[in-house]
């Protein structure tokens, strides 16, 4: 019977929520939480251990976290390492991929994870490992475990994989030579006729477009009006504009020109993805309004755009993010702003 | 959002903790923050030190805005 180790974060590992996101890695015998549900769908293997690690710990202390995980797994027998599913949780997706790649290198076992295509970890890691296509919320856990288990079973059985689409993982950019059913000249003419007549066709090779932006020229900030944007979910106490905890489609606009610093208790955070106790202690930790004003006084910034734009950068849809940025840009342009600082949590 | 703003030609600094994610997404000027839940200062320090930290980290961001960079640049 083959053996699997599953990696979960502190939440799915049933340790706690955001308040315990700094949880250092531990290992438990058997399958915890969703690992047990995964086990039910695995045909010829047993989940022998579950590794649990806090998302913030893995993110902020990656080297230490991986070293501990390496120690915890030393001497353990296992044939595959599976992490997640991570859905759209960015830190968790990053943690799953980081842990998997480390274990693959150190222990030489196949590794797999699962997450939603909008998870930022997908673009970063899909070329390096198998990431099974998942849904965007834990409400779809059962569905995700089905496709997750399917690939895990296939990898363990040693059967040849049929490519990303067939096996439901994100394309890894791996090309395998196969013999086509028709000569290339026939296939290319077929495709050309379809394209010319506006019929749908499928390219045989997909060319990736790199989505990079030209580096903007520097400015002399002593001569520049600077604006501050935050995706920390920073809002005045009471959240008067009802900024949502995630999936934001609109943002708040807060004129702070009257103040040189932010007072604890006057502001809070509504972002659903991190512990707010530090914001409550001092909101300057999210929007360093005091520091910005000090830099103006010191002559390092000419002036500040008076409005801080704020939303919760938690599972924001790409198109909404683009649109909101364009809207904010128009307002900055109208105020002759020349540079921006944007902070995320 | 960072890239969308930079497309207009305005320099922008992303102040973020998960630097590999921002870099992978293509931000050009990045400053690493103290932590996900406390970006601008270390929550374990005294208020006096925290105030200094905020001034310094904003300073790092300003320096990047003032710098003619040739490639993605991260200030740690």
Give a written overview of the molecule.
The complex is a heterodimer of chains A (345) and B (76). Chain A has eleven helices and 13 strands. Chain A has helices at 34-41, 55-60, 62-73, 90-107, 120-125, 141-157, 164-167, 184-196, 277-281, 289-297, 318-334; strands spanning 2-9, 26-29, 45-53, 80-83, 111-116, 130-134, 225-230, 234-236, 252-255, 267-269, 303-304, 307-310, 339-343. In chain A, the strands form three sheets. In chain A, strands 2-3-1-4-5-6 form a six-stranded mixed beta sheet, with helices on both faces. In chain A, strands 7, 9, 11, 12 and 13 form a five-stranded mixed beta sheet that branches. A two-stranded antiparallel sheet of chain A has the order 8-10. In chain A, α1 (34-41) packs across α6 and α3 (62-73) packs across α4 (90-107). Chain A is globular and about 65 Å long. Chain B has one domain (2-75). Helices cover 42% and strands 16% of the residues of chain B. Chain B has a three-stranded parallel beta sheet with strand order 1-2-3, sandwiched between helices. Chain B is globular, with a radius of gyration of 13 Å. The model of chain B has no long low-confidence stretch (mean pLDDT 96). The interface between A and B is large, with 64 and 51 residues.
List the helices and strands and how they pair.
The complex is a heterodimer of chains A (345) and B (76).
Chain A: E1 2-9, E2 26-29, H1 34-41, E3 45-53, H2 55-60, H3 62-73, E4 80-83, H4 90-107, E5 111-116, H5 120-125, E6 130-134, H6 141-157, H7 164-167, H8 184-196, E7 225-230, E8 234-236, E9 252-255, E10 267-269, H9 277-281, H10 289-297, E11 303-304, E12 307-310, H11 318-334, E13 339-343
Parallel strand pairs in A: 1-3, 1-4, 4-5, 5-6, 7-11, 7-12, 7-13
Antiparallel strand pairs in A: 2-3, 8-10, 9-12
Helix pairs in contact in A: 1-6, 3-4
Chain B: H1 2-6, E1 12-16, H2 19-25, E2 29-32, H3 47-66, E3 73-75
Parallel strand pairs in B: 1-2, 2-3
């Amino acid at each position: 019977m083959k053996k699997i180790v599953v990696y979960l974060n502190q939440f799915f590992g049933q340790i706690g929520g955001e308040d315990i996101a700094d949880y250092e890695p531990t290992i438990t015998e058997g399958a915890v939480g969703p690992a047990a549900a995964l086990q039910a769908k695995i045909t010829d293997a047993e989940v022998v251990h579950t590794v649990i690690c806090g998302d913030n710990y893995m993110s902020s202390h990656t080297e230490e976290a991986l070293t501990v995980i390496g120690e915890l797994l030393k001497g353990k027998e296992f044939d595959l390492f599976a992490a997640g599913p991570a859905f759209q949780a960015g830190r968790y997706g990053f943690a799953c991929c980081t842990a998997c790649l480390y274990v693959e290198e150190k222990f030489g076992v196949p590794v797999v994870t699962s997450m939603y295509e909008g998870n930022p970890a997908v673009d970063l890691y899909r070329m390096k490992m198998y990431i099974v296509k998942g849904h965007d919320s834990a409400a779809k856990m059962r569905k995700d475990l089905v496709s997750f288990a399917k690939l895990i079973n296939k990898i363990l059985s040693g059967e040849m994989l049929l490519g990303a689409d067939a096996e439901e993982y994100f394309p890894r950019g791996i090309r395998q030579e196969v013999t086509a059913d028709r000569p290339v000249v026939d296939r290319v003419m077929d495709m050309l006729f379809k394209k010319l007549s506006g019929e749908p066709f499928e390219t045989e090779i997909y060319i990736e477009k790199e989505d990079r932006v030209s580096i903007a020229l520097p400015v002399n900030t002593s001569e520049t009006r600077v604006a501050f944007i935050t995706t920390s979910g920073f809002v005045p106490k009471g959240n008067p504009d009802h900024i949502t905890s995630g999936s934001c489609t609109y943002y708040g606009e807060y004129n702070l020109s009257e103040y040189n610093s932010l007072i604890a208790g006057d502001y809070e955070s509504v972002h659903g993805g991190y512990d707010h106790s530090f914001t409550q202690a001092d909101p300057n930790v999210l929007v360093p309004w005091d520091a910005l004003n000090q830099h103006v006084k010191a002559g390092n910034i000419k002036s500040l755009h008076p409005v801080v734009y704020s939303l919760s950068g938690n599972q924001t849809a790409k198109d909404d993010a683009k649109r909101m940025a364009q809207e904010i840009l128009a307002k900055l342009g109208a105020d002759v702003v020349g540079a921006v600082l944007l902070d995320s949590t | 959002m960072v890239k969308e703003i930079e497309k207009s030609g305005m320099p922008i600094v992303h102040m973020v903790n998960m630097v590999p994610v921002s870099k992978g997404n293509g931000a050009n000027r990045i400053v690493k923050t103290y932590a996900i839940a406390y970006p601008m200062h270390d929550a374990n320090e005294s208020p006096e030190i925290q105030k200094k930290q905020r001034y310094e980290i904003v300073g790092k961001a300003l320096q990047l805005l003032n710098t003619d960079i040739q490639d993605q640049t991260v200030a740690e």
